[in-house]
Automatic annotation (TrEMBL), chain A:
Biological role: Catalyzes the conversion of 2 pyruvate molecules into acetolactate in the first common step of the biosynthetic pathway of the branched-amino acids such as leucine, isoleucine, and valine.
Protein name, UniProt field: Acetolactate synthase small subunit
GO BP terms: isoleucine biosynthetic process; L-valine biosynthetic process
Parts forming coiled coils: none
Pathway: Amino-acid biosynthesis; L-isoleucine biosynthesis; L-isoleucine from 2-oxobutanoate: step 1/4; Amino-acid biosynthesis; L-valine biosynthesis; L-valine from pyruvate: step 1/4
Amino acid sequence: MEQEQFTVTVFSEDNIGLLNRITDIFTRRKINIDSLTTSASETEGIFRFTVVISTTLANVKRIVKQLEKQVEVLKAFYYDEEDIIFQEVALYKISTQALAQSKAVEKIIRANYARILTVEPEFMVIEKTGHESETQDLFEQLKPYGILSFVRSGRVAIAKPMKRLSSYLAELGQTL
Amino acid sequence: MNAQAQKVATPAGEQSHTSPRKVSGAEALILSLLAEGVDTIFGYPGGAIMPVYDSLYHYTDQVNHILTRHEQGATHAAQGYARLAKKAGVCFATSGPGATNLITGIADAQIDSTPLVCITGQVASHLLGSDAFQETDIIGISNPVTKWNFQVTRAEEIPATIAKAFYIAQNGRPGPVLIDITKDAQFGVLDFEYKKCEKIRSYRPVPQLNQGQVLQAAQLINQAQKPMILMGQGVSLAEAENDLQTFVEKTGIPVASTLLGLSSFSTHHPLYVGFLGMHGNYGPNIKTNEADLLIAVGMRFDDRVTGDLSRYAQQAKVIHIEIDPAEIDKNVKADVPVIGDAKEALQALLPLVKARSHQDWLKEFDNCQKVENEKVVSKTMQPSTPKLKMAEVVQALSDQTKGKAVIVTDVGQHQMIASRYYQFDQPNSNITSGGLGTMGFALPAAMGAKIARSDREVVAIIGDGGFQMTAQELGTLMQYQIPVKMIILNNSFLGMVRQWQELFFDRRYSFTEMVNPDFVALAKSFHIGAQRVEERNQLGEGLQNMLAHQGSFLLEVVVEKETNVFPMVPTGESISNIRLE
Ligand SMILES: Cc1ncc(C[n+]2csc(CCOP(=O)(O)OP(=O)(O)O)c2C)c(N)n1
Ligand SMILES: [Mg+2]
């Protein structure tokens, strides 16, 4: 079966050990985690993991069930790109000189709808929010001017379907 | 117990329900275990769990602690105990090596769904992460092999954590839980009050039956011409043996069993058609690929059962009755999943299924059995060789115990032979390491089983190799006078591996031959009765001596060295290509 990229979201209790349990479920199948983000959710006390992986549809279905099998996981979902709105943020550190020397950097920043977070005497930090291809694109454009440091966040995603976590849980006979 | 000790600790008593009293974390642990009805603990002390052992010292009139000779033995004993007592087995171990020694048994319990509550001591919380003496990250290590685990760093967390541990271990699909308690939490003081855990918001142990699924399943069952039931351990975990029998007798559907399902349905029942899988019976394996409907009850389509999945039951519709939703479609696609407790599911199906019989279909199984009898069974039961064969020993044991003993098997050829030839006639009579295949399981597991059910005859059947993996537990048998019967089927080989070497590696017997100790002398050094049987004509008497003996007894039976277990589905093959010789 064909590999596709999926975004898996997991809603869980807020417990330190759970992160390992969750990543184990992917890694024991030798599935590389492209990105992983943890954060609070809209419900107090409920934690949210957003995991991006590439695998087959059949596998992601099995994985979601194995995630839900964890005692402290309330619910897990998988989505393909169509089902979600998602973003990543990237930061680029380049020398301030580069900006001063040529107008090109400024143009690149404008054209990519990126923004400058700070300008220090030696370096400046540019921020770009978008999909991986977009932040990568900016990376390629800035490369000739010398990127001192680069970092990209994991994906954050919101699902399009309107059903809320609480209604899923109600169906399962669980309450928050 | 001395008088002073009694003064220090007033056992739980009724008062604890109303007015909390101040106790140490260690004592709170013992009180929590008592509140859960724990009567037996298998364990081994050490520095990081000493406060707990010190508290335990004051409660030995209320709980039985068995000092095993190795922490692995404690886990297997707790597993054997859990399987027969039908509740969680409890283990204690210290931090570091004590804790890591538990891992094999915990992994075994995880894959075979056995409820365990394992308590480990841990270095004081201010030392965590500093590579302190005997510090090991047992939470990290045990993550993949536990149903749940938790590290307690404050005394006040103990009662609620233990309550949660028992709830999780024993409800839904059972499994092992590990609670790691830092030494300062054991010394800390709390107001003890115990409330049993009745619910965890993130965990629904028993999914509610979906009536639609039940109706669909009933429809498939009523239409089927060649249906077959695949029974797993879920039947005994749900205590659904009688429900299964009623269902089977109404529907007339033949029943085959997985390794862990064995004994949940009498082998003498006319609708019992045998043992599934790699060394199972010919009929049920072949017929899986001819049936039009498979009804899987509490089993997980392990690869030892299915062989090559792409050639497994492609023609059949599949009903999968299973408590764990993650098992549905994991290996075999279910046309109709029935998610829930096996007992509830069978009871819900019963009024919806028609009373039928499948005589022609059953006859096909009979014919297969005839083939198997001729090609396999007769050769191994009435061998022309001078040396005894394993099957003869198991058959004789089965006859002498009338199929009513608890058979605890280790891992290897003897395990498969015991599973094939012991004629189980009573539920809860088969204890083995299935999913993990842990050599060294049987002796300690038999110990735990006997403690759980002293009224039953418990016979461990063990290979010469596996026996030596946990042989030190003979010391435990001796110290606590646990009357377990042990049969070593001694072929001086790691027989099962040798069989594969013979069949698939051109007889290159790479490190499988064993020079063994004098097992009889070994047992005697522990003051355990023992006898060696080498000749066919000594077998009956040897077994009689063993069974008649008051205490534990070891019967070493010297069997033919190089013989293979058949039938066999070679790894990666289709079950249709099961080999009879
Ligand atoms: C702990 C462990 N190590 C290795 C194995 C692999 N293994 C499976 S069966 C077997 C041979 C067992 O030999 P023995 O106990 O003498 O039993 P026999 O097959 O001869 O009846 C081995 C080594 C295992 N299952 N468990
Ligand atoms: Mg052997």
